Amino acid sequence: MQPMVTDQTRRKLLRAALFSAVVPVLPYGCALTRRTVARPALVGCAVTESNRYQAVVADSQGNALHTLPLPARGHGVAIHPAASQAVAFGRRPGMFMLVFDYMSGAPVKVVTAMSQRHFYGHGVYSLDGDYLYVTEGDRKTSQGIIGVYDVRHDYQKVAEFSGFGLGPHEVIIKPDGTLAIGVGGVHTYGRTALNADTMRPSLTYMSSQGKILEQVTLGDHHLSIRHLAHDGADTVLCGQQYRGTPDDYPALITMHRPGEEMITLKAEPESWARFNHYVASIAATDKWILATSPPGNCYGIWSKETLELVELAALPDASGVVVQNGVFQISSGAAKVVHERYPAPAETSVVNVQWDNHWSAI
């Protein structure tokens, strides 16, 4: 059994996030004037050279404008659809989420996990911004929970949705307000999987009131569904982590439309091997799908029409990806940002942030 989160731990987390200095970062030492002020465009988590953890607000090129210290390693970030608020979530098994103002860089509130709960690193706001849906788990059993937090009332927890399986990871919201949940199916102690032989992952669709609308599964139960994206319409993209035989390299990305079967993206086994059994961030345009793999130090691009892999590129610690103005922007833990305009050549720039895990676009 994992130890309970004590009140003393909660107080330490609160002090670490709310009373540490919030530092505005000026790229390349430039003076901040009305002419040079850049607007926030990207938010993510980062690691400093001294192995400390941050939430970072950046400009459209991926250079930091504000940094906020985190009490532990962060993972995903949710962006409010109307207000200038965002939430950074602790990496699984996380104990905190930090609410902050991305325009000023000021912390707003730290919410700590309940004593028998932990966070899985992701959450999403309702379309109207009134509620925050967060992937959580029971610390003893890994039973999956969607925690519902009332944004209008200081992020108080008002409900829990369950009954869909073990180990949910990412939750996203579709344009119609339906929640899509990547259910990993894994019972973990800390970060150690305990049920590799019996895991039951799924892609679960849920109403905003907690009703399970549909669940779909993959043929190989060792493919843990982790990360999600949608194309702005009906298609949900799923990135998997393979927990089966180490020498096997199955396909790691699928597409799904409600009421239909899963569709698997295509690549040769040696190409899937480059991903080292793990897909992190996913994004899509009307023609292309891009997915990253930090342990594989690479990213791939697929055609939505043919489902074929069209490009596989090396990038150290390839992490987050978003689409801005039709261009993929990919972050890296090596302080690089790739601007991918496939089929045109990609452009790489050096930035002032060692990006970690995921990106969210404002």
UniProtKB/TrEMBL annotation:
Protein origin, superkingdom: Bacteria
A Pfam match: DUF1513
InterPro entries given in the database record: UCP028101, WD40/YVTN_repeat-like_dom_sf
Name this polypeptide is given: DUF1513 domain-containing protein
